[in-house]
Amino acid sequence: MNDDLQKRITEAMRDPKNLGELEGADAVGTVGNSDCGEMLRMWIKYKQEGGRKVIDRATFQSFGCETAIAVASLATELIRGKTAEEALAMKGDELAGELGPLPPMKIHCAQLVEGALRSALAPAASAIPSAPAAASSNSTGGLLENMLQPTEKPGGVRVVFLKPDAPKN
Ligand code: FES
Which residue, 72, 78, 122, 147, has most beta carbons within 10 Å? Predict the structure, then answer.
């Protein structure tokens, strides 16, 4: 990772926006990456504005990787005021906002954020064929508390792991 990108990530990490659970959220999405063990949960709350249902607020919790946290911080700001469809149209590199293009080894960090967003906004669209369970949970519990609960419990958290990266040469 180049120094410039590291500086921008460090800057975003200095004051991450929208960290934590969102009281009264309308949607929740959780994803995990089986390669690096990173997990991310996103909460979404909508509001009516100009006859449209738009994202009023989005928050997140994450374990580990600072790039994913930096992207989630930026993404939760960028999707404010967008409809679910508009937010769903955004790809990982757009969600990374001012961090700019990420190096290949960090692209999956932005994809983790994209996956959590998809899981929250369109649970059916985020289903991954090889995954054993659906991607989202309407639980409003925190990521850590929910992870400690048995996944078989009705209404408990279900985490879908993103597809691993394409095989490297
Ligand atoms: Fe895996 Fe960042 S290193 S999400």
Answer: 72
Q: How far is the CA of 53 from the centre of ligand 1 (A)?
A: 32
* Adjacent-strand bridge partners of 63: 39
Burial of 38 (0-12, 13-18, 19+ CB in 10 A): buried
Higher per-residue pLDDT: 157 or 14? 14
pTM of the model: 0.76
Ligand 1 centroid–CA 50 distance in Å is 38
Going by CA atoms, what residue is nearest to atom 3 of ligand 1? 65
> In this predicted structure, what is the pLDDT of residue 147?
56
CA distance 49 to 141: 28
Q: How far does the chain reach from its first CA to its final CA, in angstroms?
A: 20
At position 152, the amino acid (one-letter code) is: E
Domains of the chain: 3-129+139-161 (3.90.1010.10)
Helices (H), 25-137: 66-78, 84-88, 92-95, 107-121
Q: Could you report the per-residue pLDDT of 15-62, keeping only the tens digit for each?
A: 899 999 999 999 999 998 878 889 999 999 999 999 999 999 999 999
Does 108 sit in the ligand 1 pocket, CB within 6 Å? yes
Condensed to tens digits (0 to 9), the pLDDT of residues 61-71 reads 998 689 999 99
